[in-house]
């Protein structure tokens, strides 16, 4: 072999170190852009960090193909490379990320390979993420300091480098919140202490402090969002509600920019604050989505080994572009792009994949589901129901391969399972239906503020999370809002126009007539009138045009990931 296993392992190791250096460089720009209120560069920086992994990986894989040639699929070579690589990453504070990087290289350089525990890091235990209480990654505030001095010290410790809008008022807001939520229920004692991660979590226009207080013989987590308005930095609220905190770290949110020299320790602390989130979700949340994907797959393998139910077609209206399946015991759906699309769909498979890529790089503002993309995904053949196999054969046969009692799917996306909104609205009580209908409209308008026009906005393309939050999950027709032309529908005046079987006026590809939405958005009679009145703006072209104007002017419209009614100053713009 012209290249030694040691030199090849060193090349992968150098590639990983280059990735980590660049990842940290992008991350460390977030505080600077926050100080400068440079929201456009904040968004660009976020997208560049997301692209980083694949850009470096593809470059490295091309190099390996050139060096290894036809021997790229030789197990013996990769076994030797892994042995050398293992010695290089041993003891690193980010060893779990280094393992995932190696997995990515071998999977791309050796396409179609089976999951091989001897060649890949499949079940290693470095992701245990046990939090060390003596970590130097936290600020500690003992109760002996007193409540007001603790609050003052927190704001001093987290100086954002710019003046506060009204620091004294922030202090009083925080003190009152602690009194209302904690001191009405618990009496602090000598053992009471407060811990806050030194790393600040940046996303969109906000900075978040993540902490917890030991009181009443248990840890009470909290999050402090800070915003940067025209008059300076201010504390926006104090969050104790675990459901709201969970939503901040939702799969529908973009990843945080947060410094994490020891990622497992950051995740360990987060696990103590948001205890019901899975480890892979927290790695996703802090930007290490490739390792989150690794952990997700490990969880999936565990599920396969511990369950026996079969995979079946997902409930709901069959999509024209995607075939979707799941299993009753799994909280995930699997989405495959069909081989052929029935009219009026006229796009290609690659165009669909580009839409999913767009979403992965965009701010999802809590209204679009995150996905993981897999190639050569293996499933036990005896776990595939006959109904599902027939549907797969009929719709996406080119993506299928059967080998060694396994179904191998050449390309798919995984996504969190949700209740299809159309099915939910078919059966839910009126009161719950009204809430869902209201949130359906809010979801569309919040996507618009993030410069996303969903395209096909029928309820079958939306789902409900466990918290009954409406999420958009069908991406094949999304466009940038700024590319659309929102028009008032011309009024028919002549006999020929009134009774024309086809529109008598010109319609360009990106023309949209919002008043037409009224006809099909909500069908249930006990919900429709309320929906039409509650969301009048949805049907007004001028409202859509105003959002477009704000975006085109360079404004980044902030998406609050918590109810605006809990803000200390709900009138304050950012």
Automatic annotation (TrEMBL):
Keyword Ribosomal protein carried by entry: no
Keyword field contains Cytoplasm: yes
Pfam families the record matches: AceK_kinase (PF06315), AceK_regulatory (PF20423)
Lineage: Bacteria, Pseudomonadati, Bacteroidota, Cytophagia, Cytophagales
Annotated keywords: ATP-binding, Cytoplasm, Glyoxylate bypass, Hydrolase, Kinase, Nucleotide-binding, Protein phosphatase, Serine/threonine-protein kinase, Transferase, Tricarboxylic acid cycle
Isocitrate dehydrogenase kinase/phosphatase (AceK) regulatory domain location: 9-308
One annotated GO molecular function: [isocitrate dehydrogenase (NADP+)] kinase activity
The organism's place on the tree of life at top rank: Bacteria
HAMAP family recorded: AceK (MF_00747)
EC number: 2.7.11.5, 3.1.3.-
Isocitrate dehydrogenase kinase/phosphatase (AceK) kinase domain sequence ranges: 309-564
Name the record gives this protein: Bifunctional isocitrate dehydrogenase kinase/phosphatase
